Amino acid sequence: METLRTATWIAVDWGTSNLRVWAMAGAEVIARAQSAQGMGRMTRDEFGPTLEALMVDLPVTPDTPAIACGMVGARQGWTEAPYRTIPCTTQDKTLIRVPGTSRPVHIIPGLKQPSPADVMRGEETQIAGFLALNPGWDGVICLPGTHSKWVHVSAGEVVSFQTFLTGELFALLAGHSVLRHSLNGNESRDADFDAAVSETLSRPEKLAASLFAIRAGDLLNGTSGSANRARLSGALIGAELAAAKPYWLGQQIAIIGAATQSALYARALQSQGVPATVTDADRMTLAGLTAAFRALKETI
After folding, report:
1. Beta partners for residue 279, in sequence order
2. C-alpha–C-alpha distance, residues 194 and 171, integer Å
3. ∠ CA(243), CA(128), CA(53), 5° rounding?
4. CA–CA separation, 239 vs 201, rounded Å?
5. Host domain of residue 191
């Protein structure tokens, strides 16, 4: 039987809802664990014990260092990792050491844009990973999610970015608005999605009316729940693309996000004749954390 190697460091992605940990040997994953114990459920004194409990079966020692990204570095997190101001590189050597821990734990800071005011925390690590795997790349990176982001990258720096509440709006409308009664389906309905994207891209000022039309179509015409869900998604993404047009028009585009969401954004962009490179979000996260670990080693 092959003996499991001992990790040289630990990669941690700690968001609001979930915690994911990888035991790493250099850039190679040798074991992993995850839980639903996100930052949003933690008090400050619970972070250390929660992390250690999750790693109990991983091949790590008590002094194996950890590099963390995500909301764990928020003001309400384990230790605040203050935002770095753009324009700046996506990765520097200024990581924030969590005080009072026997295990060395460092957190990657987020980024802030003073005007117009905007922030990111966690996405900077995925961007750093993408650039580490694609050196010299210039263009715009789209990161779909609860709060989707469009990020202009040039010469290895984040130049500007804009955040959209699209994913959260979808969840709120689908779960808590009158539309919830009309969305009881989830099979793919590409034609309905495409039509809604086109409508709100060309007339974003009609978004609110288009959303209520989803409910009316169900009541009067019996439109299927799957078609309605596709139209809701398409309407919100179309409105986002209309507002983000200065970012994606005429630019090289990469998408980093969950597979389903990334595919929808790529489809919406393709409808406008804009090709996009879809990447694996976990791979980008790990590449960014690995770049941070290597940068930290250079300072020790």
Report:
1. 256
2. 20
3. 110
4. 6
5. 164-280
Average the pLDDT over 186-210 and give the result.
Answer: 94
Long-range (24+ apart) CB contacts under 8 A made by 75-78 are: 76/39, 77/14, 77/39, 77/42, 77/44, 77/47, 77/107, 78/14, 78/39, 78/42, 78/44, 78/47, 78/48, 78/105, 78/107
User: Which tokens hold the place of 210?
Assistant: 């288009």
Q: What Cα–Cα distance (Å) separates residue 217 from each residue in 178, 226, 227, 228, 285?
A: 13, 13, 10, 8, 41
Give the CATH number, domain containing residue 49.
3.30.420.300
Label residue 2 by pLDDT band (50, 70, 90): very low
Q: Are 217 and 252 in contact (CB under 8 A)?
A: no
Residues 47 and 98 in one domain: yes
Is 138 domain-assigned?
no
Would 273 be classed as within a structural domain?
A: yes
Structural domain includes residue 51: yes
Whole-number Å distance between alpha carbons of 200 and 257: 23
CA–CA gap between residue 253 and residue 273 (Å, rounded): 12
**Could you tell me the CA-to-CA distances from 260 to 79, 95, 149, 242 in Å, in that order?**
32, 32, 16, 21
Q: Which of 14, 16, 9 lies closest to 167, judged by CA?
A: 16
Which two tokens mark 237?
């993404």
* 261 domain-assigned: yes
Cβ 192 vs Cβ 234: under 8 Å: yes
pLDDT one-digit tens code per residue, 138-170 = 999 999 999 999 999 999 999 999 999 999 999
At position 32, the amino acid (one-letter code) is: R
Last residue of a domain, one of 69, 100, 121: 121
Task: State whether 272 and 169 are in the same domain.
Answer: yes
Could you read off the pLDDT of 54-101 as tens digits, one per residue? 999 999 999 999 999 999 999 999 999 999 999 999 876 789 999 999
